[in-house]
Amino acid sequence: MLLDFAQWLARDVRLFNVFNYITLRAVLACLTALAISLILGPYVIRKLTAYKIGQSVRDDGPQTHLGKAGTPTMGGALILLSIGITTLLWGDLQNRYLWVVLLVTLGFGAIGWVDDYRKVVHRNPKGLSARAKLFWQSAIGLAAAVYLAQLAQNMPALNQLIVPFFKFVAYPLGTLGFIVLTFFVIVGTSNAVNLTDGLDGLAIMPSVMVGGALGVFAYASGNIKFAAYLGIPYLPGAGELVVFCGALFGAGLGFLWFNTYPAMVFMGDIGALALGAALGTLAVIVRQELVLFVMGGVFVVETVSVILQVASFRLTGKRIFRMAPLHHHYELEGWKESQVVVRFWIITMMLVLFGLSTLKLR
User: Fold this and answer.
1) Which of 318, 325, 248, 257 has the alpha carbon at shortest distance from 283?
2) Angle, CA 100 vertex, CA 202 and CA 165 arms, to 5°
3) Tens digit of pLDDT for each residue in 154-190?
4) How far is CA 34 from CA 73, 217, 269, in A?
């Protein structure tokens, strides 16, 4: 909205043409989302506390978590509010990619909200049933996949699987292959981030780092000169996603202010499912699904630990880890919560840098 207003003012005052630069609007989006999070954060926490929307803690989990019972949850609403307002303010509302990412993010956030609401307010420990949750995730994921597949028909670069580290190596997916891949990336990443969200600040910081890195890919993909130089597909309009990534970055850092150890609020499924879906959708649009797999290595390992734990117990009756997801295993091994979180942050930072190195590798 502010972009349209600035373009209208630029007819008389050329200075306002500066707002046409994506980089400026991305920085402003980051600062705006950060400000919204920091300003509204205390108010949201007070309201969640007043309505007694507190976190319940598993009895079979680490004993150190018992003290977290009652901590306000569903704080992910603050993240979505910051991202939504900021994107609408600074984004180009004519951009189709921007709307796809925003709607998928809000849609998965709505699923998480229903799940959290049933758990916390209705005191239903199961929340939204696994079948219902997967159904709605699949519905949104497939809708996004089909829409992007339609766009890909007129844009061959959007319909290729890019292999990192090997310049100009790409495999055409076809319509069905594109839809299937997009579905699994969006739904899979959403649930992976949700599984990771078990310690104070553990999920939000890797989401911020990966989101920021995907913003770099989006900017390069949307610039014909950079795309040609870096050997990545040129996707007209993809650069506008940098504004969304800036909003995600700022909103995430603002939320981390209140979510860092000891957390004053938890994001809940409303935040974790939405952030994961956002990262998955961004990766699909900029054709960096495999790079997302690398940069989001912490999310991948956390998910694999759960799969292995369940499979091992059902097949042999024995557990591989002391507790899954993996971060709980290290807690039971004697690591302090803050140690687990910061070490996982460091690992993510290294993986993100490794993923960014694929932009220019001779």
Assistant:
1) 248
2) 65
3) 887 788 888 887 766 778 888 899 999 999 999 999 9
4) 20, 22, 21
